Amino acid sequence: MVYLLLLSVPFLNTATVKAQGGSKIDILHANNLHAERKNGEDIQRLKGSVVFKQNEVTMHCDSAILYSVRNAVEAYGHIDINQNDTLHIYGELLNYDGQTKYAIMRQHVRMTDRQMTLTTDRLDYDFANKEALYTTGGNIVDEQNKLTSVIGYYFSETRNMFFKKNVVLVNPKFVMKCDTLQYNIISHKSIFHGPTTIKGEKDFIYCESGWYNTVTNKAKFGRNAYLETDKQLLYGDSMFYDRKNGFGRALYNVRLIDTTEKLIVTGQYAEHYGSIKKTFITDQVFVTKGLKKDSIFMTADTIWAMYDSTGKYRIIKGYYHAKVYNKGFQASADSMVYSAVDSTLDMRTRPVMWFDNNQASGKRILIHTIHNKIDKVYIYQDAFLASQEDSVRYSQIKGRNMTGYFSMNELYRIDVDGNSESMYYVRDEKKAYIGMNKIVSSDIVIHVKNRKITRINFIRDPDANMIPMKDVNPYEARLPGFAWYGKDRPDSKEDLLRPFEKIKIKAGSEIFGE
After folding, report:
1. CA-to-CA distance for 23 and 52, rounded, in angstroms?
2. Pseudo-torsion of CA 350, 356, 357, 358, nearest 10°?
3. What kind and span of H or E run contains 23?
């Protein structure tokens, strides 16, 4: 990128002028030389193919004035400063103070070396401290990048460059905009401060501090950082991004936001795989589906957010200690999958679901929702539905499979498929218990209204028996497989945040590979 030069001012042929504050200035050539006094000062006017030399720097120009006593040069027209044949500075006007070794080049200034070209209207160079500066806007171009800024600094000792105000870096793969940018020529690392945006073809990054390596395309971002890819935003206190591999990592206060699906996932650690459009989030994970009062809230030790095979619909997979809370229902399992294709929650490995005073369990529970309200519930293998009547009494239904139908989160029908059994308490109009109805049938259809069983249809081979209350022992009135998991039922979305065993995350250089 930007390199700066040593300006020097030479002398004529073998003629030498004593420089009071600097080295000797040799004038190597001029078509015309005229000595005179101007304002009481001895000067030399040089015209035509003027060449000066000072140490390793050679300067060409159309004409110049050499101020011998104060060791200064003014140069005009087609100025070319050459340092060791590797760096050139071109311009139309030059003021050089040989005592302070400070040079000012103006008008159509262009500086080139083997790697980059800088253009600006004015370039200042301090030879004593080996520092360069432009303050009227500059444009730097190398093989891959084009950078513009209002102010630019170059420190040749450390090979560091600093740019300020309206900094724009254009790369074939991205465009970076920031207020302050530091760039090192050797490491190819850009360090930015203040509001910064990096826009690529398929991603957008915002942060207020960080670094970017233009060779490896790896970066680290901090302070209000987020990564936008496709339909989602990924936030984190600290982020690492490998653009080449499309891999991102976020650490602490992580948020994944999908505005299309109205989905928010939070946690303390995340990894994003852009090539397969998957995001992994763990440590204090919390999922919000929907942005209104009927939102579905979920948690698990680990969440994977991805898309289905069409790339259109969001899939959320939760592993270990998965729990769900919604105003109309709650659930827990060891694993769960939410699919936006048909708005279903697939709960597996010890799944349990609660709604009203009911508890459903089985080998697998599939919850179908519409606008975050229950529409249907499918319970597969060893399906069991228990309703808590009071502190010791439970009505129960079991079968091979079971389907529950809902309207506005209210259960109105249950289909029990295969090996159906039921035990439910019967009450009179004053809600006093009058007995227990025990039924065995191949298949049963149960109709429910206002949370009460109103009608039962026996499909095949029914065997029904009403047991008087005096003969019912509520502690023994249990179908095989009965268990009540009420202590595991989340009472609110805040209840989902009860801490699980945390995954320890390594921080610092081990995370970001620095």
Report:
1. 13
2. -40
3. none
Q: How far is CA 229 from CA 170, 208, 234, 248, 259, in A?
A: 19, 19, 8, 10, 12
What pLDDT is recorded for position 503? 31
Structure tokens at 291: 């942005």
CA distances from 248 to 154, 203, 357 (A): 32, 11, 44
Q: Which amino acid is at 148?
A: T
Single out the residue of 103, 100, 127, 123 nearest to residue 112, CA to CA.
Answer: 123
Q: Are 315 and 338 in contact (CB under 8 A)?
A: yes
Among 166, 186, 126, smallest CA distance to 1 is for 186
Question: Which CA distances in Å does 317 have to 40, 308, 327, 445, 498?
Answer: 87, 12, 21, 33, 20
The DSSP result for 257-268, as a single string, is EETTTTEEEEEE
pLDDT at site 22: 59
pLDDT tens-place string over residues 154-212: 887 787 889 999 999 998 888 999 999 998 877 888 899 999 999 988 889 999 999 99
CA distance 401 to 379: 6
Token readout for 252 is: 């602490």
Its pTM stands at: 0.75
Distance CA 426, CA 10 (A): 113
Average pLDDT of span 241-263: 88
More confident of the two residues 82 and 337: 337
What does each C-alpha distance from 400 to 291, 413, 420, 458 come to in angstroms?
Answer: 37, 17, 7, 15
Nearest to 366 by CA among 324, 319, 408: 324
CA distance linking residue 202 with residue 36, whole number of Å: 67
The SS3 assignment for 494 reads: helix
Distance CA 6, CA 282 (A): 55
Cα Rg of the chain, angstroms: 39
Place of tokens 């289909």: 415
**Cα distance from N-terminal residue to C-terminal residue, the chain:** 23
The residue among 375, 297, 302 whose CA lies nearest residue 330 is 297
Spatial distance between the Cα atoms of 326 and 94, rounded to a whole number of angstroms: 75
Beta-ladder partners of 159:
none
d(CA 219, CA 316): 28
φ/ψ of 132, rounded to 5, equals -120, 155
Place of tokens 């369990």: 361
Helix, coil or strand: residue 486: helix
